[in-house]
Structure formats: structure tokens, C-alpha cells
Amino acid sequence: MKKLTAVVCFGLPEQQVDILMEGLTTTLAEPRKWIVFGSDANLLAALKKLWGETIELIAVIVPASTEGLEEAALSILQSEQVALSEAVWVLGSGTAWRGPDDALAIFHSVGVHVDSLVTKLANLTAGR
Questions:
Q1: In contact, 102 and 77? CB cutoff 8 Å
Q2: d(Cα 115, Cα 62) in Å, to the nearest integer?
Q3: Residues near 60 by beta carbon (within 8 Å), at least 6 away in sequence
Q4: Model pTM greater than 0.70?
Q5: Which residues of 1-128 form beta strands (DSSP E)?
Q6: Cα–Cα distance between 90 and 54 in angstroms, integer?
Q7: What are phi and psi of 127, to 5 degrees?
Q8: Which of 86, 17, 28, 96 minimizes the C-alpha distance to 58?
Q9: 11: left (phi over 0), alpha (psi -120 to 50) or beta
Q10: Degrees (nearest 5) of the Cα angle 21, 37, 79?
Q11: How many Å is the maximal CA-CA distance in the chain?
């Protein structure tokens, strides 16, 4: 079984993040820390209000284009003491970055339904 301490959503629309959180919190006890990079301050605030008591949610407002923000994202994770080897990254369809090499896993949302991502994350933490 692999240790999963955080989910990082980078370039994923906030509405999909909400669906992913809903699916994972009903399926898995962990992770309890989510770092969400999003461009809509109102939707990020709504996520924080909805999920803030259930999980540790770190919302980071970024421009709609995440291009060039890779190092900043990695710095934020480092400051939040998130080990890349224990973090799963979910990248949005418009994200050109492939994610950090030493991440536990990286999922691309291109053509993938959110319920499929929930299943993949559940299988990952169960060691399947």
C-alpha cells in the first residue's frame, strides 16, 4: 500500500475538483490535504467553504494559463511540507506540464471522467 498524503490539482477546473473531492472523501479516508491551483477566486472560496471542515484545503489563485508556474507550484508544496513522493497530481487538460518526475502518480484529466480518476486513486492507495 502506497502512502498518499496529498492531492494536487493543477490546471483542473474547480468544478471537477469538487466532484473529485466528493468521490474520494466517500471512498477513501485519505488524503486529508489538497492543494488546488485555480483561477476562479469565487469558486476556490466556495470549495474552501464547502470542504474546509472535512479536509485541509490550500487554495492557490493562479492565472487561467498555468504555463510557467511549475516552479512556483513546487515551492508552495515544499513550504507546505508535502513530499512529492507522497502526492498525486491531477493535471487539467490545458496543462502542458507533465508534472514533477518524483510524484507518487500523475493523472491527466484529458478524456478521463472524474469517476475514473477516483477509481484510479483508490486503487493506487490500496496498492493495486
A1: no
A2: 26
A3: 35, 36, 37, 38, 73, 76
A4: yes
A5: 6-10, 33-38, 56-61, 87-91, 105-108
A6: 20
A7: 80, 20
A8: 17
A9: left
A10: 105
A11: 37
